[in-house]
Structures are given as C-alpha cells and as structure tokens.
Amino acid sequence: MAEVFKQQDDAFLMIEKWQELHPSLIAGFTTRNGGESNPPFDSLNLGLHVSDEQSNIIANRRSLADKLEFPLENWVSGEQVHQSYVHFVTQLDKGKGSADYNTSIKGTDGLITNEAGLLCTAFFADCVPLFFFDPETGYLGIAHAGWKGTVNRIAEQMVEKFESQGVDPSKLLVVIGPCISQENYEVNDHVVSKIESNFMDHTVIQTGRDRYLLDLKQLNVEILLQCGVFRNNIDVTNYCTFKENSLFYSHRRDRGQTGRMLGYIGYRKF
C-alpha cells in the first residue's frame, strides 16, 4: 500500500489525499526537524509536558502555526491520560492547551469536531495517532492511542462518538499514523493479558518467556473493523518512530528523554 503521508516540509508530513477532498481541511503529523529546542529535544519539540525550555516549545508551536496557516490560539489539546475519553470540541474550547498544558481538556485522549477554525491536536513519541474524517458529514477527529488507550478501545469510543453525530462507520475514513512498529515494541505478560484473545493471532508474536512483540497499528485496525469501519477506508503508515531517528522522537528508543511530535486535523476558517 502506498504511503499515506507526504512530506510537505522539513517540519511536517500531510495526509494529502484527505486535503484534496476538502479545500480547507488540513491533517498531518510533524517531524522532529526545523525547531529551536536543544538536545535531547532537538529540535521541533511540541510537547509542553516534557522538561524542555517552555520558551522554545512555544516558539516551535508558533513557527508551525505560521507554516500551517492556523493560529496557535485556535489549537485545542486534550490532557492525554492514556485512557479512552473522547471530547466534542466547540468554539468554547478554542486555545485550550495551546500555550499552557494545564489548560488542556482534562482526562481526554480523543477529540472530534465539525466546526471550522479549530485545530484538533495530540502529541506523540511512539503511541499511535488515529486520524478520522467523514467526507459526507464533515466530522473529523484525532485520538492518542498508547497501549492502554488501545486496549481500552479508544478507537471504538471515537467511532461511537461519530455515530452519535449521524456518521455511518462504513463511510468513515481512518489513517493510522507514525508510531512504534511491532519489531521494536517488546511488551510483557501484563500488557498482553489486556488484549482480547480473538486479536492475539494477528497482533502478538511471542519471542520468549514473558516477552512479546506487539503490533499496535494492527490492533487498532482490528478494533476499527469490529466497529464497522471498512478495511479499504483505513490507511496505515509505514513509518516507525523508533526506527527513524532522523525524523521522529521515540520515548522507548530515547529512554524517555525526548520530545513530542504533533498530530493535527482541522478546517481552516477563511
């Protein structure tokens, strides 16, 4: 399958096929390049919750906002607590988490909206970015799915939130973005015990006692299929955050001392 993300700039990759469907839609994922942060956060760290200089992070966010032509004051972020709560974003949420992590929407790992002028954002360094778009109704969203969010079925929570707004899951488009690949994601019995048994054959490889390789991308695909999303409406990136050091931060590879990439989706307001 062709790579769904196209590199538009040193700083970001975009979901070109979606942007071609709607003139004001932007959707993509940043790289680690083109910013002001110093090692180990070099250089486009966008996560306010890591121990980077806050002034550098805000400068990085403003620089990206200029490139995306989407004001920082219009960004919206969830707190990201590795759970499965999904928030419906309105104009009342504009700017939450954009310049101060403490103003992020509490207890939230998923965002959806259909309103223009709001950029739904989430931050990543191995966890799975899930992007959603329904061309018929215009609803869109993003979710942060680490292993906990994945086994807590945040993908299902997103689909149900869309369904509550009249979206047909069979028409919903989903992109699974850059995250850690199976070959680089070793987990133990504790993690594997949380995975539904009917998903095990397609997502887990045992390599030793209490040692497994987990495919987070495929696990999210399996959950989405179970929720009525069609397989040919799901695009899965080939990018691996762990392997591609020059492009991405990786929490596991960098042993926690690293920055965060940004996943984003929204409609520009002209």
UniProtKB/TrEMBL annotation:
Transmembrane segments: none annotated. SUPFAM superfamilies: CNF1/YfiH-like putative cysteine hydrolases. Pfam families: Cu-oxidase_4. It catalyses: adenosine + H2O + H(+) = inosine + NH4(+); adenosine + phosphate = alpha-D-ribose 1-phosphate + adenine; S-methyl-5'-thioadenosine + phosphate = 5-(methylsulfanyl)-alpha-D-ribose 1-phosphate + adenine; inosine + phosphate = alpha-D-ribose 1-phosphate + hypoxanthine. The keyword Transcription regulation does not apply. It comes from the Bacteria. Purine nucleoside enzyme that catalyzes the phosphorolysis of adenosine and inosine nucleosides, yielding D-ribose 1-phosphate and the respective free bases, adenine and hypoxanthine. Also catalyzes the phosphorolysis of S-methyl-5'-thioadenosine into adenine and S-methyl-5-thio-alpha-D-ribose 1-phosphate. Also has adenosine deaminase activity. This is Purine nucleoside phosphorylase. The lineage of its organism: Bacteria, Bacillati, Bacillota, Bacilli, Bacillales.
